[in-house]
Design brief:
Length: 120
């Protein structure tokens, strides 16, 4: 038996054009079925989800998922501007038999909002 814990990466692009670039990249690496692409709703933002693959920890599929998330993060960070800002806001989350946790992300609490403050 193995542990089932899911990891997903959620990214919101500031425009449809940026989301389309990620969609093209996913097709280039033949992984488009691993992604969900939302539709532009308000202010041009489009959300992209790299969905969990459902494998158990230690399975080859789990390692492939880890590698794809790492590649996706590198792709997202390749869009960063010199000042550190980025047209993508993203988070990586884990949930399942290990509980739930924010694993990584590129967002900062710009307004000291207590609801989003670190637990430290």
């Amino acid at each position: 038996m193995g542990v089932i814990n899911h990891e997903a990466l959620i990214a919101t692009a500031m425009s449809r054009e940026y989301a389309r670039e990620i969609e093209n990249w996913a097709m280039e690496i033949n992984m488009e079925t691993a992604f969900l692409f939302g539709e532009e709703e308000t202010n041009g933002y489009v959300t992209i989800v790299l969905v969990p693959n459902g494998s158990k920890k230690g399975w080859p599929e789990a390692e492939a998922g880890d590698n794809l998330r790492a590649d996706f993060k590198k792709k997202l960070e390749s869009y960063a501007y010199e000042d550190g800002s980025n047209p993508f806001s993203w988070v990586e989350v884990g949930y399942g038999e290990y509980g739930q946790k924010l694993l990584d992300g590129n967002n900062k609490n710009m307004y000291n909002d207590k609801e989003y403050a670190d637990d430290q």
